Amino acid sequence: MTGVPGLFVANLVIALILLFQRVGDRPLTRAIHAGLFLAVAGMALGYLMGFQGRQSTTDASGRAVELAARHSVGVTDENPGLPVTNWSTSGGDLRIPHFVGLHGLQVMLIGALVMSVLASRIPWLRSEGTRASLMAVLALAYTGLLAVLTWQAFRGQPLIHPDALTLAALGGLLAATALGVQAVRSRAETGQQAPA
Protein backbone atom coordinates (compact mmCIF):
# COMPACT_ATOMS: atom_id res chain seq x y z
CA MET A 1 0.00 0.00 0.00
CA THR A 2 1.67 3.19 -1.17
CA GLY A 3 0.86 6.81 -1.84
CA VAL A 4 -2.03 8.58 -0.18
CA PRO A 5 -3.77 5.44 1.19
CA GLY A 6 -0.48 4.32 2.76
CA LEU A 7 0.03 7.71 4.42
CA PHE A 8 -3.56 7.70 5.64
CA VAL A 9 -3.28 4.24 7.20
CA ALA A 10 0.13 5.05 8.74
CA ASN A 11 -1.26 8.22 10.33
CA LEU A 12 -4.32 6.37 11.55
CA VAL A 13 -2.12 3.71 13.19
CA ILE A 14 0.08 6.39 14.81
CA ALA A 15 -3.01 8.21 16.07
CA LEU A 16 -4.41 5.00 17.58
CA ILE A 17 -1.10 4.14 19.25
CA LEU A 18 -0.67 7.64 20.69
CA LEU A 19 -4.28 7.66 21.88
CA PHE A 20 -3.18 5.37 24.71
CA GLN A 21 0.03 7.26 25.49
CA ARG A 22 0.64 10.22 27.74
CA VAL A 23 3.06 12.61 26.06
CA GLY A 24 4.13 15.48 28.31
CA ASP A 25 1.68 17.28 30.57
CA ARG A 26 -2.12 16.95 30.28
CA PRO A 27 -2.65 19.98 27.98
CA LEU A 28 0.05 18.78 25.57
CA THR A 29 -1.28 15.22 25.63
CA ARG A 30 -4.79 16.48 24.91
CA ALA A 31 -3.44 18.72 22.11
CA ILE A 32 -1.65 15.79 20.47
CA HIS A 33 -4.65 13.46 20.76
CA ALA A 34 -7.09 16.05 19.39
CA GLY A 35 -4.66 17.22 16.72
CA LEU A 36 -4.06 13.72 15.42
CA PHE A 37 -7.82 13.09 15.30
CA LEU A 38 -8.27 16.33 13.33
CA ALA A 39 -5.39 15.52 10.96
CA VAL A 40 -6.77 12.04 10.24
CA ALA A 41 -10.24 13.56 9.70
CA GLY A 42 -8.69 16.09 7.31
CA MET A 43 -6.98 13.29 5.40
CA ALA A 44 -10.25 11.37 5.20
CA LEU A 45 -12.01 14.46 3.83
CA GLY A 46 -9.61 14.34 0.89
CA TYR A 47 -11.23 11.08 -0.22
CA LEU A 48 -14.54 12.91 -0.70
CA MET A 49 -13.06 14.60 -3.77
CA GLY A 50 -13.18 11.25 -5.53
CA PHE A 51 -16.98 11.18 -5.30
CA GLN A 52 -17.71 14.54 -6.93
CA GLY A 53 -17.84 13.10 -10.43
CA ARG A 54 -15.64 13.22 -13.48
CA GLN A 55 -14.39 16.32 -15.20
CA SER A 56 -12.58 17.15 -18.40
CA THR A 57 -9.65 19.52 -18.66
CA THR A 58 -6.74 20.15 -20.99
CA ASP A 59 -3.11 19.36 -20.35
CA ALA A 60 -0.16 21.66 -21.13
CA SER A 61 -0.16 20.47 -24.76
CA GLY A 62 -3.83 21.36 -25.22
CA ARG A 63 -5.07 17.76 -25.28
CA ALA A 64 -8.32 16.86 -23.54
CA VAL A 65 -7.84 14.83 -20.36
CA GLU A 66 -10.61 13.23 -18.33
CA LEU A 67 -10.10 13.20 -14.56
CA ALA A 68 -11.85 10.77 -12.21
CA ALA A 69 -12.27 13.28 -9.38
CA ARG A 70 -12.74 16.95 -8.67
CA HIS A 71 -12.55 19.24 -5.69
CA SER A 72 -15.23 21.76 -6.63
CA VAL A 73 -18.91 21.37 -5.79
CA GLY A 74 -21.54 22.99 -7.98
CA VAL A 75 -18.98 24.33 -10.49
CA THR A 76 -16.07 22.99 -12.52
CA ASP A 77 -12.54 23.00 -11.12
CA GLU A 78 -11.45 25.49 -13.79
CA ASN A 79 -13.41 28.41 -12.30
CA PRO A 80 -11.63 31.43 -10.80
CA GLY A 81 -9.96 30.94 -7.45
CA LEU A 82 -8.41 32.81 -4.56
CA PRO A 83 -4.80 33.98 -4.90
CA VAL A 84 -2.14 31.50 -3.71
CA THR A 85 -4.55 28.66 -2.78
CA ASN A 86 -6.76 28.85 -5.90
CA TRP A 87 -9.75 27.84 -3.76
CA SER A 88 -12.95 28.38 -5.72
CA THR A 89 -14.61 31.80 -5.55
CA SER A 90 -17.73 30.65 -7.38
CA GLY A 91 -18.68 27.33 -5.76
CA GLY A 92 -17.91 24.94 -2.94
CA ASP A 93 -14.37 23.63 -2.62
CA LEU A 94 -13.50 20.47 -0.67
CA ARG A 95 -9.83 21.45 -0.50
CA ILE A 96 -10.70 23.98 2.22
CA PRO A 97 -11.91 21.55 4.92
CA HIS A 98 -9.20 19.11 3.78
CA PHE A 99 -6.55 21.80 4.43
CA VAL A 100 -8.08 22.92 7.73
CA GLY A 101 -8.29 19.36 9.02
CA LEU A 102 -4.75 18.47 7.95
CA HIS A 103 -3.38 21.39 9.94
CA GLY A 104 -5.40 20.65 13.08
CA LEU A 105 -2.37 19.11 14.79
CA GLN A 106 -0.32 22.29 14.33
CA VAL A 107 -3.17 24.47 15.61
CA MET A 108 -3.62 22.30 18.71
CA LEU A 109 0.11 22.30 19.47
CA ILE A 110 0.33 26.08 19.03
CA GLY A 111 -2.69 26.42 21.34
CA ALA A 112 -0.97 24.33 24.02
CA LEU A 113 2.25 26.34 23.63
CA VAL A 114 0.47 29.71 23.85
CA MET A 115 -1.42 28.61 26.97
CA SER A 116 1.80 27.37 28.56
CA VAL A 117 3.53 30.71 27.92
CA LEU A 118 0.53 32.73 29.14
CA ALA A 119 0.26 30.63 32.31
CA SER A 120 3.16 32.56 33.86
CA ARG A 121 1.30 35.85 33.34
CA ILE A 122 -2.36 34.91 33.80
CA PRO A 123 -3.12 33.37 37.21
CA TRP A 124 -6.18 31.36 36.21
CA LEU A 125 -4.17 29.55 33.48
CA ARG A 126 -1.55 28.20 35.90
CA SER A 127 -3.42 24.97 36.64
CA GLU A 128 -2.59 22.10 34.30
CA GLY A 129 -6.21 20.94 34.58
CA THR A 130 -7.49 24.34 33.46
CA ARG A 131 -5.22 24.37 30.42
CA ALA A 132 -6.27 20.79 29.59
CA SER A 133 -9.93 21.86 29.77
CA LEU A 134 -9.21 24.82 27.50
CA MET A 135 -7.53 22.45 25.04
CA ALA A 136 -10.77 20.45 24.98
CA VAL A 137 -12.71 23.64 24.21
CA LEU A 138 -10.24 24.54 21.45
CA ALA A 139 -10.44 21.02 19.99
CA LEU A 140 -14.25 21.07 19.96
CA ALA A 141 -14.28 24.55 18.42
CA TYR A 142 -11.84 23.52 15.70
CA THR A 143 -13.85 20.36 15.01
CA GLY A 144 -16.96 22.55 14.70
CA LEU A 145 -15.15 24.85 12.27
CA LEU A 146 -14.11 21.83 10.22
CA ALA A 147 -17.72 20.60 10.15
CA VAL A 148 -19.08 24.01 9.10
CA LEU A 149 -16.48 24.36 6.32
CA THR A 150 -17.28 20.86 5.03
CA TRP A 151 -21.02 21.60 5.12
CA GLN A 152 -20.46 24.91 3.34
CA ALA A 153 -18.41 23.23 0.60
CA PHE A 154 -20.99 20.47 0.04
CA ARG A 155 -23.67 23.14 -0.35
CA GLY A 156 -21.68 24.54 -3.30
CA GLN A 157 -20.94 27.74 -1.46
CA PRO A 158 -17.61 29.56 -1.84
CA LEU A 159 -15.61 30.33 1.30
CA ILE A 160 -15.68 34.08 0.65
CA HIS A 161 -19.44 34.26 0.06
CA PRO A 162 -21.13 32.56 3.03
CA ASP A 163 -24.91 32.78 3.22
CA ALA A 164 -26.94 33.69 6.32
CA LEU A 165 -27.22 30.03 7.37
CA THR A 166 -23.44 29.54 7.29
CA LEU A 167 -22.87 32.81 9.15
CA ALA A 168 -25.43 31.73 11.77
CA ALA A 169 -23.63 28.39 12.20
CA LEU A 170 -20.29 30.17 12.60
CA GLY A 171 -21.86 32.63 15.05
CA GLY A 172 -23.30 29.76 17.07
CA LEU A 173 -19.91 28.05 17.09
CA LEU A 174 -18.21 31.25 18.24
CA ALA A 175 -20.79 31.75 21.00
CA ALA A 176 -20.47 28.14 22.19
CA THR A 177 -16.68 28.48 22.23
CA ALA A 178 -16.86 31.72 24.23
CA LEU A 179 -19.23 30.07 26.72
CA GLY A 180 -16.88 27.10 27.02
CA VAL A 181 -13.88 29.34 27.69
CA GLN A 182 -15.86 31.37 30.22
CA ALA A 183 -17.03 28.21 32.02
CA VAL A 184 -13.44 26.95 32.28
CA ARG A 185 -12.23 30.35 33.48
CA SER A 186 -15.01 30.68 36.08
CA ARG A 187 -14.27 27.21 37.43
CA ALA A 188 -10.54 28.01 37.58
CA GLU A 189 -11.04 31.35 39.34
CA THR A 190 -13.48 29.85 41.83
CA GLY A 191 -10.96 27.13 42.59
CA GLN A 192 -8.23 29.72 43.16
CA GLN A 193 -10.34 31.66 45.65
CA ALA A 194 -11.38 28.62 47.68
CA PRO A 195 -9.54 28.13 51.00
CA ALA A 196 -6.82 25.51 50.94
Automatic annotation (TrEMBL):
Transmembrane regions listed in the UniProt entry: 6-24, 31-49, 96-120, 132-152, 164-184
Protein name: Uncharacterized protein
Keyword Membrane: yes
Keyword entries, A-Z: Membrane, Transmembrane, Transmembrane helix
Organism of this sequence: Rhodococcus wratislaviensis NBRC 100605
Domain of life (superkingdom): Bacteria
